[in-house]
Amino acid sequence: MTPRPTLARRRPALATLVHLAAALLVLLSLVVTLWNGLEERGTALAFGVLIAVGELTRRGGPFVREAAPLGAAGALAYALLGENAGQPTHHGPAQVVTVVLAAGLVGSVPHIARGQGPGADQCARRVLTVGFAAVCFQPLYNQGAFAGWGGPAYALLLLALLSLTALCGAVLAAALAHSRTRWPFAPLLRDELRALPGIGSAVVATGAVMALAVAVAGLWALPVFSLPLLLTQLSLRRYAAVRSTYRQTIASLARATEIAGYTPAGHAHRVAALSRAVGRDLGMSGPALTVLEYAALMHDIGQLSLVDPVPAGATACLPVAEQRRIALLGGAVVRQTGVDAAVAVVVERQADPCREQPPAARIVRAVNAYEEKARAAGPGGSLTALEELRLATAGDYAPEVVEALARVLSRDCLTSPGVG
Prior knowledge:
Layout: H1 13-36, H2 41-56, H3 69-79, E1 83-84, E2 87-88, H4 93-113, H5 120-142, H6 152-181, H7 185-217, H8 221-254, H9 256-259, H10 267-281, H11 286-297, H12 320-337, H13 341-348, H14 359-377, H15 381-391, H16 399-410
Antiparallel strand pairs: 1-2
């Protein structure tokens, strides 16, 4: 029997369409630029260097929303550049896309050599958003449509166009993530929109300021107005490093039960990964998803208070009273570690009746039971475990959580734990 391809091997239709649209825009831009020649080569070179430097300082990570904010701001500034030191510019949208693409590729060479270059989704999103901004501004500006705009009105116009571009970028990012992972679109879009007031607003503001400053002071304004965003980027990297260290600390605490022999190796991480996927499927996002993941990592930590370990750490088979006692002990341990109190609440209530539990506790309870049952059943245990959860949903497990778990497993987002 031929195995069904996983999502990582599929070619999602929406993502393919976005990539094709970006490729066509790039091809058309290259043809037009080569045919017409490069306008204002000094300006194009200055912005190209800025974008390349921004790409060189790229730093990704699980808590980084925009890996190259300086490059993004420089690209948007060039897309909305109307004057250089009081002299009108004449570059069009095709040249904007060409310069941004060429500079981005140059700046990404060291990252690509290390296998850490931007992915196809990131490149397509950058090309389409910059192209959108340039198409909205450059043709109208070159036709004199904004000739009567000056002072605050012109600045507000640039901010409005950049804000609209940022919204389009958020929609594109959510659509690409939805196509790649099949997670619900609305929570993904909500995550992207929540990120806009942070680094997104800094990129938009810097792009607008650069365009306005170059119009008055010339290209010397670029390094001056790049410095604040570089400092912001440094601060965000430190913040991301702190969050990453915090998560690693929680993951290390979660391994305490494994090291002590109370639970099988990797159990907490499997439950956390699967719980996060189920939470995504149910529409959770942002801080709620983080609380769910941390609670899933630490859901068994109460077993450290037991004198006699539970066989194989399978708490789902224990009497309800014993499950609640272990859950309360776990919540007490979590509170002493200084982790967010919301995580402790989820750990404490994972043994309560499902209708009285918060959503995160329902997910952890069902996923933990599935992992334990699937591991105990051996090969083919995944279907057996799901069937047992479905038969018990009336009193023990929330039906919507069990069905979400089935959908996640059917999409092969994760390998079924404990089974071949």
